[in-house]
Amino acid sequence: MSLTLYNTLTRQKSLFTPLEENKVSIYCCGVTVYDYCHLGHARSYIAWDTVRRYLEWRGYHVTYIQNFTDIDDKILKRAREEKSTMDAVSEKYIAAYLEDMDRLNIRRADDYPRATHTIDGIKRLIHELETKGVAYASQGDVYYSVRSKSDYGKLSGRKFEDLEAGASGRVDEEDSKKRDPFDFALWKAAKADEPFWESSWGKGRPGWHIECSAMVRDRLGDSIDIHCGGGDLTFPHHENEIAQSEAATGKQLATYWLHNGMVNVGGVKMSKSLGNFTTIRDLLDKGKIEPMAMRFFVLGAQYRKPIDFTEEAMTAATNGWHTLQDALQFGAIGAAKLGWALNGNDQDALDREAIESFTSAMDDDFNTASALAVLFELAKGINREANQLRHQGTIDADSQTLFKSWNTLKQLAAVLGLETDDKAEAAALSLNPEAIEDLIAQRSSAKAAKDFAKADQIRKDLKEQGIVLVDQPGGTTLWHHES
RNA sequence: AUCCAGGUAGCCAAGUGGUAAGGCGAUGGUCUGCAAAACCAUUCAUCAUGAGUUCGAUUCUCAUCCUGGAUUCCA
Q1: Does some domain include residue A158?
Q2: Which nucleotide's C1' sits nearest to the alpha carbon of A229?
Q3: Same domain, A417 and A453
Q4: Nucleotide nearest to A37 (CA to C1')
Q5: CB-CB contact of A243 with A180 (8 Å)
């Protein structure tokens, strides 16, 4: 089996071959920190987190770098609005970003470089481009000369004629400083009351695209394996990154370019500028959806496809996740009633067929939707046995076989970042079984005396503590933890 | 307008040159004093439209229509 992925650069799926055997370097375009993250950001970073987890599970040693853009017009605007400073605004939203992503079980990057911490690298890169004659200074600004690069447009599939068609009628205030309207800024002269850095071109700050080129080089080198980000960054951002980096180094910037599809609302892209966004913390804090259900929602479609955000979809995702969650939490029940030893290191007890199906789904450009079907197959078997155990006190399957299914499910779900809260599980299991049995006995007496009000009250009380009672034929009552 | 991606059951969503995974929902059933939950079963697809290639296409090619993204900050 071999991993194949869709490369925006070549417009087709191709075999994944890292530059260095068993090692993968990933650079992911991060957020501009001037506001809280919305579902669109969640989708993107859940997708890349899953890619990273899968590659590691596949045996690669992954280095994952993601930047924060902390110098930008919108941050400055926000700072003025909040009567704050650029730094304070950045810090606030970086902290918020990390909080949100932690809740979605998105693992922290190996490093989070920031534009403002990479000024030297940025200036050095611009100087190199100037020396090579592909960049020029103009009234305190520095521009990249797009036409100096013969393969400009190779990532987005654009030709200059296409660009001209789209640019017609648009007049940029910077145009007077540019030699060509398609040239873009590497360095911008400082405006009054804005933060700036000293440079040989005068006081100023970096343009948007250059920071990523500099940070990739600084942290990962001239060439990396995977560069990823939202599909809306393909042009001009990633196109320009390629232009700058490759002009400077003469080497290919990234072998694979991966782009995730957008989250739509009512058929239109969710975006801050349109104002049709719902923040992650709003969804999570208001109990509209659980973190893992949000993750499940995102994983329900292949990462390149657009997905629609609707109330209905949130409900469906929640219900779907609960089905998997039930099966995942069966481990605790298995330990309590079937004597399973959960030491978290059961590499041998795995369902090979399921592992293979899962791997072949994920090997095909990270097809999480298809991979989830494998999880549901496993969950189905587990939940059926769980039902037997709850209702009859026994299971049909062999305990070891069942353990194998559960163990496989647990591992594969973790590869997708779908994990249950073990602490809550443990807390629930710590309730005293004797006390529960005692209450069940009281309820049985009440039922025998036709005092159904009392019987229902006992059942209700237990329910509030997470204990569900199931009456059996013949008068016995089994109980289990709510999952 | 140009470039890119896509149009699969009530909804979401995989996939394949030989008539199509999975999830959600719905319906019925098991169980029960009544429930709830869970489990079991079942239901619905001329795979956007037209043409072409082929023994055969939903899957390949072309055209058309529709949707989204990009061309301006954007995950």
Answers
A1: no
A2: B75
A3: no
A4: B75
A5: no
